Amino acid sequence: MRAKHAFNLIEISIALGVIAVGIVAVVGAFPLAANKTRDAMAETYAAQAAADMLALIEYQGRQNWPVYFEGSTVLPAAKPSGGTARGGVIADTNGTIYGTATPGAYHIIRYTDANGNGTFDIGEIVDFEAEMLVWRSLVSEDWKTSNFPYSEAVRLNVEISWPVAVPYANRQKAYYTTELSRR
Predict the structure, then answer these.
(1) How far apart are CA 25 and CA 53, in angstroms?
(2) SS3 for 146?
(3) How far apart are alpha carbons 14 and 50 in whole angstroms?
C-alpha cells in the first residue's frame, strides 16, 4: 500500500505564486475602477448643472425674451473665454454653487454639506468643481443658409470644463445645447 503524502514545497510555492498573481491583478484594477467612477460622477454633475442652467435661462428668457435673447448683455452672443469664472459664489439648496465673474462664465462647486447647515463652509468636501460657459447663437435651418433672427429663435450653448485646477486647454469638456423658438 502506498502512503499518502502531503504537498511538497514546490507545489506550495507554485500555488502561492498563482494566488499572488491573481491578487496583484485584482488590486491593480481598483485604481482604474476608482478613476472610472470619479469620471462618471463628474460627467453626471456636469450634465445636471448644464440642464439646470439651460432650464433657468429658458424660464427667465421666456418671461422677457427681448432682454435675454435680443441684443442681450445678460447672455453673450459669443463663447466667453475659458478660465475666467473664479468669482463670487451663489449657493442653491442642492449643494451646488454658481458664481460668476464674467457674463456667461460660471464657477460651479458641487459639495457635500458635511456640517449640515445648508451653507458652504471652509473644510467642506468638494465633490466637483468646474467652469461653465454659457452663450447664445443663431438657429439656422439645414436646407437654408439664412439664420432665424434672435426675435424668433435662439440656440443656448453650454460648455462645462473640469477640473478647474488645471489650465483650461487641458481640462475635460462637455458640451450641451438646446434650441428655443418664441411662442
Answers:
(1) 43
(2) coil
(3) 55
Q: Is 158 left (phi over 0), alpha (psi -120 to 50) or beta?
A: beta
Helix ranges (H only) for the chain are 9-63, 65-69
Residue 112 grid cell? 457635500
**pLDDT tens digits in sequence order for the chain, 183 residues long:** 666 777 788 888 999 999 999 998 888 888 888 888 888 888 998 999 899 889 988 998 888 888 888 876 678 888 887 766 554 444 444 444 455 556 777 777 777 766 767 666 666 677 788 888 889 988 887 766 778 888 889 999 999 998 888 888 898 999 999 999 987
Question: What pTM was estimated for this model as a whole?
Answer: 0.72
Q: Are 105 and 80 in contact (CB under 8 A)?
A: yes
